């Protein structure tokens, strides 16, 4: 439990603070007044004012936030000096940059994390051969005495030629006793076991990992590979969101509980795995924040573009309706993801 809590705080703090740092830096660059840059939420523990900005550390270490003048204040309530440095007084490109910078920083963070992991630890290549690289303690495979190096030949009479064939065949035998035929040191043997259902993926598993081979990379090669991986992952996520929205794929979201569980598992394997998961979640946050949903950065960008086309601000009542719709959408997604997390637990 302890490692899960620490890993969750680390992951959320890093990706949210870096996201807010993107808004902060671009706001400063474009001459906007940032009233506060906070790490954490809740009551202040420490605060210090530098120039016109208060930098604070708060009690709940799960992210952070910016208070940029003009994003919540009304223009009439500002002084002339403050009005000149507020968000709404700046040019459209400046405001678009500030709104997009958070997501951009998330992508940069993901690339930097993967770059470091790929350069220091290398990458792992998964062998397509149906050879057991490792068994999980207490799993059906371990109880059936399957061992590292065993080559699986058949499951329940169906030939196994590649590692991916294992999952395909097991999916047909939920709660069935299956016979696994394997070769060990040149001798063909059999084992009998019952597959289990994985809580997160709902797939049938027997508790085995494939053979892994590490590959080292030079500094520039690692950076290139990291950028490619983040780009590929972003495209995959966008496609997944599109399929869920259009009903072509089942909506399967992870909420705070699910993320905490995954973070804890990653941290228990090693710090490099936790960094890889942080990169994955940072990419996810970048994509989600650019969605055209009110209250998200993407929603703000759409509003800015609409106002630019209209050459005037949206009516206050329209903004209230838009923000209310955004709250409903985000609230529904949060409740749905929490429901999915709870159903996975049981």
From TrEMBL:
InterPro entries assigned = PDZ, PDZ_6, PDZ_sf, Pept_M50_Zn, Peptidase_M50
Instruction: Decide whether keyword Ribosomal protein is in the record.
Output: no
Every copy of the PDZ domain together lies at: 131-160
Q: Which Gene Ontology cellular-component terms appear in the entry? A: membrane
Q: Which Gene3D superfamilies match?
A: 2.30.42.10
Question: What does the record give as EC number?
Answer: 3.4.24.-
One GO biological process from the UniProt record? proteolysis
Q: What cofactor(s) does the depicted protein rely on?
A: Zn(2+)
Protein name, UniProt field: Zinc metalloprotease
Gene name linked to the record: rseP
């Amino acid at each position: 439990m302890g490692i899960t809590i620490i890993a969750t705080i680390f992951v959320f703090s890093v990706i949210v603070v870096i996201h807010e740092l993107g808004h902060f830096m671009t706001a400063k660059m474009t001459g906007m007044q940032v009233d506060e840059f906070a790490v954490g939420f809740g009551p202040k523990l420490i605060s210090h004012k530098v120039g016109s900005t208060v930098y604070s550390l708060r009690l709940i270490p799960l992210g952070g936030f910016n208070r940029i003048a003009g994003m919540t204040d009304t223009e009439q309530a500002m002084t002339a000096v403050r009005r000149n440095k507020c968000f709404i007084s700046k040019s459209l490109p400046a405001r678009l940059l500030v709104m997009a910078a958070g997501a951009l920083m998330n992508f940069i963070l993901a690339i930097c994390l993967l770059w470091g992991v790929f350069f220091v630890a290398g990458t792992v290549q998964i062998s397509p051969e149906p050879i057991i690289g490792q068994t999980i303690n207490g799993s059906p495979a371990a109880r059936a005495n399957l061992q590292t190096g065993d080559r699986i030949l058949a499951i329940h009479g169906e030939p196994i030629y590649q590692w991916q064939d294992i999952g395909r065949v097991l999916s047909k035998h939920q709660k069935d006793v299956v016979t696994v035929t394997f070769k060990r040191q040149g001798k063909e043997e059999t084992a009998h076991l019952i597959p289990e259902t994985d809580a997160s993926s709902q797939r049938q598993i027997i508790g085995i990992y494939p053979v892994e081979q590490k590959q080292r990379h030079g500094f520039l090669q690692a950076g290139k590979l990291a950028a490619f991986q983040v780009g590929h992952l972003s495209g995959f996520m966008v496609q997944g969101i599109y399929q869920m929205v259009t009903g072509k794929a089942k909506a399967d979201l992870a909420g705070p509980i699910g993320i905490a569980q995954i973070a804890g598992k990653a941290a228990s394997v090693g710090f490099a795995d936790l960094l890889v998961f942080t990169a994955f979640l940072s990419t996810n946050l970048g994509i989600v924040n650019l969605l055209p949903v009110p209250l998200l950065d993407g929603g703000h960008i759409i509003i800015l573009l609409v106002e630019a086309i209209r050459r005037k601000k949206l009516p206050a009542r329209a903004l209230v309706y838009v923000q209310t719709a955004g709250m409903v959408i985000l609230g529904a997604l949060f409740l749905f993801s929490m429901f999915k997390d709870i159903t996975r637990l049981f």
